[in-house]
Amino acid sequence: MSTPNRFKVTVVGSGNWGTTTAKIVAENVAIHTNVFDPEVRMWVFEEVLDGEKLSEIINTRHENIKYLPGVKLPSNLIAVPDLVSAVEGSQLLVFNVPHQFLSRICKQLKGHISSKVRAISCLKGLEVDDQGVRLLSDYITGELGIHCGVLSGANLAPEVALEKYSETTIAYPLPENHYPGDATGETWQMLFHRPYFHVRVVNDIAGVSIAGALKNVVALAAGFVEGKGWGENAKAAIMRRGIIEMIKFCKIFFNKNEIETFTQESAGIADLITTCAAGRNVRVGSEMARSGRSVEEVEAELLNGQSAQGMVTAKEIHSLLENKGLLDEFPLLEITYQMAFNGYDIDNLPAFFEKIR
Ligand SMILES: NC(=O)C1=CN([C@@H]2O[C@H](COP(=O)(O)OP(=O)(O)OC[C@H]3O[C@@H](n4cnc5c(N)ncnc54)[C@H](O)[C@@H]3O)[C@@H](O)[C@H]2O)C=CC1
Ligand SMILES: O=C(CO)COP(=O)(O)O
């Protein structure tokens, strides 16, 4: 592959956040035409809605009527249902799919991407297997052999899509095989920064990723107490314990102690606050506690095909902590798993916290 004059961009994913980030990117490439190719492709997991293909609806009506209804998309954003065609010839990839679909997507892409391609992961989650835990950006690098940074922050997609102001954090340390004309943190900032979407660039990939992944589990717990009608003080207590465990997780599993990422960047306490206020995880947790229904039933009723990633992450973290003999070190994360999957009674929470102090 020759060094590109202009970066061509593909967004892999077209859910609630996937479509929102694709809108942002399409707006920016239309402005910075000297840096980016003016057309952005978005891979769409094809669905048929009332006899019409979602990709065709997006390309003709410029709206993702299922995952981001009511938001006009730029006409330079092209929906492509074939994954390999969607990424062909792109130098910059933005990964933005629910975590549970990432491994199949990477398998399909293997062998179709040059090692000079660069990526950003907007996913919030972690990869856990028998070996331990990995950041999703590292997972993408491992599967596809491309350098990958992360974007994460206090970014409820429905607000960002309506261009209501928010901040985000991009972590993009330069790769060892950086080459002339290669993308830098500044390139990614140019691709994502909008007057309504303020981007700060840092190097702490682990901190930014862990903040995004674990706050979803904490938000579930916040939802559980909200659903019980316990009020804002209880929710604040959950959040306080949550941030302690997020920082501790980063230290134990990634040997990283950059607390400033959690306190000073959007990926951290700010994301925890916004998610616990109005995210899908808090809404799902709240409704589960209120109604006693399963996550599947509640997701089906509230989310119309979207997913509460905290459930996936809670399960993975539990198996990691169990394998490593560290369940007692992360009581909030573990109790959230027990409440979500094993019917642990939420009313026991205060007594549980009494024991651990
Ligand atoms: N929605 C939000 O406000 C934010 C989400 N995030 C993160 O971004 C990531 C992506 O989330 P969203 O875009 O909101 O997704 P979403 O929760 O809207 O999920 C729906 C997406 O999953 C796709 N899908 C369904 N079945 C599939 C299959 N079998 N294979 C492949 N794809 C399939 C759908 O086509 C659709 O694009 C997640 O990790 C999430 O935590 C991060 C910040 C904000
Ligand atoms: O990550 C988010 C906000 O920053 C979105 O959170 P939910 O997935 O809980 O909606």
Automatic annotation (TrEMBL):
Keyword hit for Isomerase: no
Active site as annotated: K215 (proton acceptor)
Domain Glycerol-3-phosphate dehydrogenase NAD-dependent C-terminal residues, every copy: 204-349
GO biological process assignments: carbohydrate metabolic process; glycerol-3-phosphate catabolic process
Membrane-spanning ranges: none
Alphabetized GO MF terms: glycerol-3-phosphate dehydrogenase (NAD+) activity; NAD binding; protein homodimerization activity
Catalytic activities: sn-glycerol 3-phosphate + NAD(+) = dihydroxyacetone phosphate + NADH + H(+)
Top-level EC class: oxidoreductase
Amino acids binding NAD(+): G13, S14, G15, N16, W17, G18, F45, F101, A157, R280, Q309
Sequence positions that bind substrate: K124, R280, N281
UniProt KW NAD keyword: yes
Enzyme Commission number: 1.1.1.8
Gene Ontology cellular component list: cytosol; nucleus
Glycerol-3-phosphate dehydrogenase NAD-dependent N-terminal domain location: 8-173
One matching Pfam family: NAD_Gly3P_dh_C
Keywords annotated in UniProt: NAD, Oxidoreductase
Family: Belongs to the NAD-dependent glycerol-3-phosphate dehydrogenase family.
UniProt name for this protein: Glycerol-3-phosphate dehydrogenase [NAD(+)]
